[in-house]
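Attaching the record inline, Q. Sequence:
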Amino acid sequence: MKISYKVEFLPEDLQVRGNAISSGDEETDKRVEDEIIRRLDRDDISAWFCAKVTCAVVEGDHIFTGVDYLGANSYNSEQEFLESDVMEDMKIEAYSEALYAVNDAIERGKVAQSLLKELKERT
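Structure, as predicted:
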């Protein structure tokens, strides 16, 4: 069995203004938002992104995946995000979703076995 993770930094659809910060100080909020927008204009994806973490559990030819998304992120760099507690939490959630996919496959297999037995009995 092999377990792997893939992290994607996706463009965020949510607008920066009004969503990046809510400090209670309009001047501070505007300054932070302006900086995020400047960084985005320079194609700095880590300024404002949606994170997607995929966990793949591979056994032979079978792949089970779990995915977690988190939007409205702003970090100084992609590396800073990768080393964050948020990233660790997303890996745990994606892993849990992959486990759910394995359990679902087991349940579907049980149903398929039961159906196959019933269908064979009818012939």
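The chain has a mean pLDDT of 96. The helical segments are 26-41, 78-82, 85-122.

More tomorrow.
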